[in-house]
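> forwarded from #structure-qc
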């Protein structure tokens, strides 16, 4: 495990939970072998804050911009109009991105986190649907992948993704905790992968049985969702990127492969979803 390099594709390291020791958390992540950390936004202020924060850690922290379903309220349209301004048209392919990659300017790596969440409330059900669909269209326009959050709304979410499936560049169904049928339904979108984190290690989780049955390793990326969802044996504590190694250990047992195999496969998947179509960027 000591030499393995892996990526945390979903970490709220901009959060106030890391306000006093963010530098230490990042240092521990580097020492644990985390080579990149992707940071999802939840609204306009966090999108701006994350772009600024990631500018301080170029090549390590990668920003996303977007409006989280639980943040969709009456002002959702104004929020979206302002967030859209943070993304250049055709961000992934344009010459603007070449300049981004060569200067210190950070371009978003994905649209996220976006989706539907009816767990606590359906008060803004209709607004959530509209806000999500608009951000799905941004993904089509900009070629930036989607980081999708979905709770108690898979049917509705799948219906929207289906409408754009042929045009979408891909993305992550983040924090997957569903059953075999739900996994198969998501895997029909072949440019998408499932984000797997601490829940896998929980004692009552059925993921160690479900995942090897129906999800090939080519369809999984690693995530913490820190500061939430800390894996066993850290459960209940503040989560951080260095703890992904406990997820890797559990995945290796579940799939009956080495931990190196898990890190290699999941790194390839991250490259495919987030860094392909980027030949302009990498060779620019
Ligand atoms: Zn999140």
């Amino acid at each position: 495990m000591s030499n393995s390099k892996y990526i945390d594709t979903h970490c709220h390291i901009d959060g106030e939970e890391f306000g006093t020791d963010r530098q230490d958390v990042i240092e521990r992540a580097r020492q644990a072998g985390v080579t990149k950390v992707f940071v999802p936004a939840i609204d306009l202020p966090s999108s701006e804050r994350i772009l600024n924060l990631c500018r301080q850690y170029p090549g390590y922290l990668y920003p996303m911009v977007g409006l989280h379903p639980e943040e969709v309220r009456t002002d959702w349209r104004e929020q979206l109009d302002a967030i859209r301004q943070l993304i250049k048209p055709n961000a992934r392919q344009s010459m603007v991105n070449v300049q981004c990659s060569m200067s210190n300017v950070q371009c978003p790596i994905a649209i996220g986190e976006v989706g539907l969440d009816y767990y606590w409330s359906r008060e803004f059900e209709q607004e959530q649907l509209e806000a999500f669909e608009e951000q799905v269209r941004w993904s089509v326009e900009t070629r930036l992948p989607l980081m999708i959050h979905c709770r108690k709304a898979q049917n509705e979410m799948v219906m929207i993704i289906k409408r754009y499936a042929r045009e979408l560049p891909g993305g992550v169904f983040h924090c997957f905790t569903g059953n075999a049928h739900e996994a198969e339904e998501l895997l029909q979108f072949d440019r998408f992968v499932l984000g797997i984190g601490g829940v896998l290690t929980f004692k009552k989780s059925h993921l160690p049985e479900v995942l090897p049955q129906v999800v090939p390793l080519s369809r999984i990326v690693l995530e913490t969702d820190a500061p939430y969802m800390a894996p066993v044996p850290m459960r209940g504590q503040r989560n951080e990127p260095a703890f992904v190694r406990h997820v890797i250990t559990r995945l290796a047992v579940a799939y009956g492969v080495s931990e190196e195999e898990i890190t290699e496969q999941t790194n390839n998947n991250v490259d495919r979803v987030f860094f392909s179509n980027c030949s302009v960027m990498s060779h620019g």
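QC bot note: DSSP finds eleven helices and eight strands in the chain. Residues 10, 12, 40, 113, 225 surround zinc ion (CB under 6 Å).
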